[in-house]
């Protein structure tokens, strides 16, 4: 990863190249024969990065359209390239000037948005705030529970020198924070960040001691990103992909040592904990107040470390597995669509 900041003063290409060179060096390989990235017209293309890295000729390369939904499933794309023999070493990166540059901070009007923008859902925060309001009502959770999520992320980030927010957050300070869209205060939302992150994926035989991609799933359905047709506006991606993840992996929630959950908004943490079976839905309030979720996002996550569209969370999962082994769950959120991956190291 590059340093994370609120004003990099550098282009997305410069950020991407720094992160990619660091990942290749960390992996002990000089180059890659496939390059993958994902973005929403706010980054730099794979061909440009390959050229800057002198990956010539470049093999399979792809710029995947999408944001947070891709951060876990792009591991599946890389694994399929390797399993099929198309590539031996895949370089994955995400680079963005998310604070100082271009981001999706205004509503785009397409066929779907025509149904929601007239009701004030101008961009992602009002959209997911509406879902959050209903989720809190249905579960009985309150602002005290959302504070527990944010405060724990700050506590986890305290020892992380990369994190943009490392200071403690008291309940009093949380309640004093301004609303962006009720019930979400500014501290309930991820950090808009300048920075880049990169990963290297290769075959198990070439890196037998490295963390291994075990299972990746991607999917979704009618829910909080299609509210005009949703049966349940609170149903995020995890409600759809979690059953598939456990079915296809043969694993169970009890085997997860490190949950690294996409925490673009505070309320997504308890919802995912319940959906993935990491906490009982009926006990989620006490679970949060007792800080039983302290093992979630040990680096501070997107709420406190920074926001590189979730790929920084995947990088943290690798760090945790290198240090202590076990199984990590990483997730990618995009409303009612998303992805999840299990990574393991014995």
Write structural notes for this entry:
- With 346 residues, the chain is an alpha/beta fold.
- It contains eleven helices and ten strands.
- It has helices spanning 12-27, 46-52, 70-83, 124-139, 143-157, 171-176, 238-249, 268-275, 284-289, 301-304, 311-324, and strands at 34-39, 60-65, 89-97, 179-181, 184-185, 194-202, 212-220, 258-260, 326-333, 337-345.
- The protein has a four-stranded mixed beta sheet, sandwiched between helices. A four-stranded mixed beta sheet has the order 7-10-9-8, with helices on both faces.
- It is globular.
- The mean pLDDT is 95.
Task: Quickly list its features.
346 residues; 34% helix; 4-stranded mixed β-sheet; globular; alpha/beta; single chain
Bulk shape: globular
Looking across the biggest beta sheet, what order are the strands in? 2-1-3-6
Structural class: alpha/beta
Largest sheet: 4 strands, mixed
Summarize the helices and strands and which ones pair or pack.
Elements: H1 12-27, E1 34-39, H2 46-52, E2 60-65, H3 70-83, E3 89-97, H4 124-139, H5 143-157, H6 171-176, E4 179-181, E5 184-185, E6 194-202, E7 212-220, H7 238-249, E8 258-260, H8 268-275, H9 284-289, H10 301-304, H11 311-324, E9 326-333, E10 337-345
Parallel strand pairs: 1-2, 1-3, 8-9
Antiparallel strand pairs: 3-6, 4-5, 7-10, 9-10
The gist of it:
By secondary structure, this protein is of the alpha/beta class. It has helices at residues 12-27, 46-52, 70-83, 124-139, 143-157, 171-176, 238-249, 268-275, 284-289, 301-304, 311-324, and strands spanning 34-39, 60-65, 89-97, 179-181, 184-185, 194-202, 212-220, 258-260, 326-333, 337-345.
């Amino acid at each position: 990863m590059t340093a994370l900041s609120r004003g990099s003063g550098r282009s997305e290409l410069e950020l991407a190249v720094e992160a990619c060179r660091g990942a290749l060096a960390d992996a002990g390989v000089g180059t890659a024969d496939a390059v993958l990235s994902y973005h929403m017209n706010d980054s730099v293309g794979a061909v440009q990065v390959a050229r800057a890295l002198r990956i010539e000729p470049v093999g399979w390369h792809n710029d995947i359209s999408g944001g947070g939904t891709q951060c876990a499933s792009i591991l599946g794309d890389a694994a399929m390239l390797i399993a099929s023999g198309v590539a031996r070493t895949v370089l994955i990166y995400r680079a963005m000037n998310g604070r100082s540059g271009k981001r999706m901070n205004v509503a785009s009007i397409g066929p779907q948005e025509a149904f929601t923008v007239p009701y004030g859902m101008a961009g992602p925060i009002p959209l997911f705030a509406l879902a959050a309001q209903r989720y809190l009502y249905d579960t009985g959770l309150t602002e005290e529970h959302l504070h527990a999520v944010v405060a724990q992320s700050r506590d986890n980030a305290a020892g992380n020198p990369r994190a943009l927010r490392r200071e403690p957050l008291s309940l009093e300070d949380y309640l004093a924070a301004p609303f962006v869209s009720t019930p979400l205060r500014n501290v309930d939302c991820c950090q808009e960040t300048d920075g880049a992150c990169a990963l290297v994926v290769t075959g198990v035989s070439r890196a037998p001691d490295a963390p291994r991609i075990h299972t990746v799933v991607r999917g979704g359905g009618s829910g909080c990103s299609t509210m005009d047709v949703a049966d349940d506006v609170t149903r995020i991606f995890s409600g759809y992909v979690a059953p598939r993840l456990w079915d296809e992996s043969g694993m169970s929630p009890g085997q997860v040592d490190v949950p690294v959950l996409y925490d673009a908004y505070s309320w997504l943490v308890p919802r995912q904990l319940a959906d993935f079976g990491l906490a009982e839905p009926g006990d989620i309030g006490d679970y949060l107040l007792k800080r039983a979720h302290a093992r979630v996002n040990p680096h501070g996550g997107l709420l406190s470390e920074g926001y590189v569209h979730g790929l920084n969370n995947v990088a943290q999962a690798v760090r945790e597995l290198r240090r202590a082994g076990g199984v990590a769950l990483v997730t990618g959120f995009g409303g009612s669509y998303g992805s999840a991956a299990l990574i393991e190291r014995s």
